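Here is one chain, start to finish.
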Amino acid sequence: MPSIVNYGNKRFASLLKHLRNYHRLQRQETLHRIRVELKKIINLLKLLSYCHEKFDYPKHAESFGKIFKLAGKIRERHVIQELLKEYGIKQPQEPNKIREKAKKQMELFVKKVPEFENKIKKHKRKFLKHLKHIEGACVKKNLLKAKNEFKNKSLAKLEDSELHRTRKIAKQIIYLSRLLKLNDADRTFFTGTEKAMGVWHDKQVVVEYLKKMKPAGFVKIGRELEKRIHSEAFEIKKNISKFYAMDSAPLTFRKK
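Its structure:
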């Protein structure tokens, strides 16, 4: 198993690099990378909590969660604008207060970057110290648990509302897949399923935005998107069932 300490070190180094880059130049792609690294680190914190009962997950996760949430507020508006273009929907005229709020959120994030860096460095020292004591067997056990949870949720009567939660479990498996060396079939399945769930979720975000903004013709557009949402949810669940019907074996790993 690749060194989990090295993996953790890379995640922190990457997060700090992207924060500094965003502090200099506010690019949406950089903000996206910040959120991805935060998700990976939060999943490592969950792994630590699983392997070490005394590890205080809420205490360590709080700082990362706050950064993630603030970055998400800024990122969501841009994502919606890009999705509207992709779906061929005219961008509604936003009230000045919404544009001002978005501007203030971005300015606040930029202002807080040095504070974020200090907190991250503080957590990093303690975090890597704990990571040294995680054994490969515990990582494997945790990911087997995650896959079983994903399978149980998927093969039960999976409601559309549960798909987003199930997507998070898929991400948990994907983010630690380098440590696990998942076989190609599992890697392809979880990556493809998570991506399909992401596309499905994007449409939900747009529908909620349209309901809030109420642009001309939003009822018709919303109905069309909702039809696609239900259709895509059905296909996702069908593909999951198909995968598990063919694969009754437990999670396997590639040989080194």
